[in-house]
Structures are given as structure tokens and as C-alpha cells.
Amino acid sequence: MDLGQVVSALEKIYQEPLKDGEKRKIVFWMDPEKSFTEDINQIEINNVKIHVMNESNQFYTKYLLEEKDPNSNYLVYTDLELDTEDNWLADTVFYSQTFYADKLSIIMNELQIDPSFRGVLKKYEKFFENKNRYRKFKTFGIKDYTDELIEIAMMSVLCNVKTPDFEEVLKVILMDSLDDNNNKFLTDIEKFFDIDVFWQHVAIKYGYVRETKSLKTLLIHLLITTLSHTVDEKVLTNLQGYIAEYNRPNALVFVDHWMHHKTDYEIFDKYAEQIEQEIQIMSVIQQQPIEKFIEAEIFPAIDRAIIIYIVNSILEEKEDFDEYINYINIRRTKHFYEKYQNLYEALYYTVLMFKFYKEYQNGIPQGKAHDIYQAYVDRYHYMDTYYRKFYVAYDEESNNEILKKLQGVVENLYTNWYLAQLNAHWSKAIKQEMENDWSLPGILKQQHFYASIVRPHLDKNERVFEIGRASCRERV
Questions:
Q1: What's the mean per-residue pLDDT of the chain?
Q2: What does the pLDDT look like over 108-153, one tens digit per residue?
Q3: Given this model, what pLDDT does residue 476 score?
Q4: Dihedral pair phi/psi, residue 11, rounded to 5°
Q5: Bridge partners of 97?
Q6: Dihedrals φ, ψ of 471, to 5°?
Q7: Which terminus, N or C, of the chain has the lesser number of Cβ atoms within 10 Å?
Q8: % helix / strand / coil in the chain, to the nearest 5?
Q9: What residues contact 290, with CB distance under 8 A and at least 6 apart?
Q10: Contact residues for 280 (Cβ-Cβ < 8 A; gap 6+)
Q11: CA nearest 108: which of 48, 150, 64, 60?
């Protein structure tokens, strides 16, 4: 910054309106490098008195500003450090403004950052040496600066985050790589910011405190802390060291936002599968009743364990069908349901088939042809629906060993029990009642369907669409 730039910057300060409580402007020009010692006497600013302060006139300076001339605008130039304990002018400096004639001062002036934040910007001066980083920082348009916000803004720039947001910073870093040495964003933070400050922010916001830190253990910490919101901590004894001691809701919010993001969830899912193997979460689940994990959704292993539990229970002829259906319905709202949707759907309709079997475990009743027909219309046809929907799901993942086990019991139930009994009763009924007249009282014959149902609409110039057993019409 040359002398002309200095004068211009100073004039701009004095031209600013007085703040609340100000009666005049006093600016302390700090020049510890003594860059402008020979130039100070050349400076002239309209309506501003220039005073040079040194080691021997500090008390006089205070007297001048506070008693002798309490009304004039002053520029106090000094090469002294005024943050010492025995500083006579500490209170005066506090309510005045400070000015530095260096590159950092220009940056602070352009960003409208109060001089009180000079220390934090000085610490990260290397960050602002790059024009692109400075430009991105400036586009944030920050109005109310704090040390924390300045640091988060710098990290947001380094991680290409659109707004100062530490949650987004952390997600971008984790998504890049869990290998600290190969993570480009973590490398930039270490090079142009301060890696220790990054970890301090992580500790403050997410309760991650470890002597040896890494991105992988951080992710485990976030996942297990989130898991502890839906699973009793007593169940997670072996993983207790990964549960935050404070600010747990922040971890829950972070993981929830990530796993439900429209695109970023794919990397989350990949990490969740990787982490569940490293911490052997399946062994933790298997040591507890499955209901303790029924609301949890952090790891896909939880869904696999629930599916296996229901399948094994069916194969072992345990008839807690309402419980199984409730479990499946709960899982429909969870994150990994889509991944296991076909398994869940096949399992769901298998359970409904067994519920049907339990309802008629004493056998499908014999009866007259009309009664059997009406029973099929009212109730029996559900068994056919369950069977077809089982195979819709089965065909999507027919190579799955779990579905192959289910297929055996489904076929036995449907073919050897349901169809065998229903066909036998129906054949017997029609043989006894319908040999001479192939009709049922009150039931429209198929050959009369057109004349009775379709023709009347066509006579009214209406379109008719037949879908299965139903019909709909559209006026033209």
C-alpha cells in the first residue's frame, strides 16, 4: 500500500457517519513495521489533526485526547504495540478505530471487517494470497462477522460450498475420501487454513473428541451417535466409544440430511456398507432381540437382519404374523427399504398367505356352488392375489437364496393346500348341481355380458372400456 492509498483509505474512514455514541473520530494508525515513519509528516486530511505517539508521550497522548482537545478528529500514528497490560490508552483505543496500512488492511476494508478481527485474519493471511479464494469469500456477502463465521467461510471456500455452512463443508470432505492422506479438501485446509481448527469445529459441533483423529473414525462416530437415538445405548456397549457425549442431535441432523439427499445418498449408502463391516454391526444385532433395532435405519445390515428373522420365524412355523406385518410396515418408511423392497414385498405376501392359512387351518369349507363362488368373490380370491404379488417380487430377484427358501413354502401352501382343497370342493359342487344348467342364481352369464353391460352404453353413444371384471365409460 503506497502513501496515496493510505490517505485514500483514511479519508474514507473519516467520511463515514458517526456511530451511536460517537462525537468525533479517533483513528489509531498501527505501523509496527515502521513503514511510514518518514511519511507521516506529509499527510494531510481535511478536518483531522495528526499526532505521533511514541514511548515517551503515551500519557500526554491520553491527556491530549481526553482532556486538552476532546472534540477534534484525530489520527494517532504509532509504531508501538498497544495490546500490553500497562497501556495508558487501552480504553481510548477500545472505543476508537484502528488502521493498518498493509495488504491485510485493504482486504479487511473491502470486506468491511471490523479491525477487531485483524488477529484471526492475520492467522490465515495465506488464505487470502490467492485471488480466487478471496473472490469466493467476498461473494458470501457476510454482514455480521465473528471469528467462527470467518473460519467457516474460509473452509467453505476451500470446499467449494456455496454458502458458509460447516455441515456442508464436512459432508463435502467426507464424500471425497475417508483416507485423510488422499482427501483433496482436507489437504487444502491443511495447506491454506489450519487443520487443527477444522478438528476444533468438528469437536464443538459434533462432540468428536479423540487423541488420534481421522475421517473414518469421525464417520463411525456420526453413524453410531445417530444410531443411539433409536437404539438403547446398552445394546451398543461395544461401540460406546463412538457415541458423542454432547451435541448428539447435531450428528442426527447431519446424517439425516446426507442419507436423504437426492443424489449424495449414494455415497452415504456405500460408506454405510463399508463401515458396518468394519465395526461388525451384524454381530451386535444378532446378540439382541430384533425389536430393539426395528426403528433404526443407519446400516443396511439392520434390514437384512429383520428379513432373516421373519423368514426363519416362518420356516420355524412361528405364527406371529401381525408382528411380522408390523415390522415390514415400519421398515417401509426407512432409508434402505428401497434396496430390499423386493425381499420385503415377497415376505409381506408370504406372511399374508400364512395368515389366510391360519384363518382356514381347519380346511376350506365345502358347500353349494353358489356359496363357494360367493366366498371366492368375498375372501378366497385374496390368496390368488398374494400368490401373484409374491411372484412379482420374486421375479425381480429370483437368484436370492432367501426368496428360494420362501418359494418352497409358498408353493406348498398355495398348490398343495389352497388350490387342492378349493378345486376339489368346487368340482364336487358343480358336478352335483350344474351338470344340466351351467349357471348360478343371480350371476350374469359371460355370454350375456355384452348385451347386458356393454350394449346399453353404446346405444347412448358412450365409450366403454373393460378392465378385468370392471368397466368404465367416457361420454363422447
A1: 89
A2: 878 888 878 888 888 998 898 888 999 999 999 998 999 999 999 9
A3: 31
A4: -60, -40
A5: 27
A6: -140, 150
A7: C
A8: 65, 5, 30
A9: 305, 306, 309, 327
A10: none
A11: 150
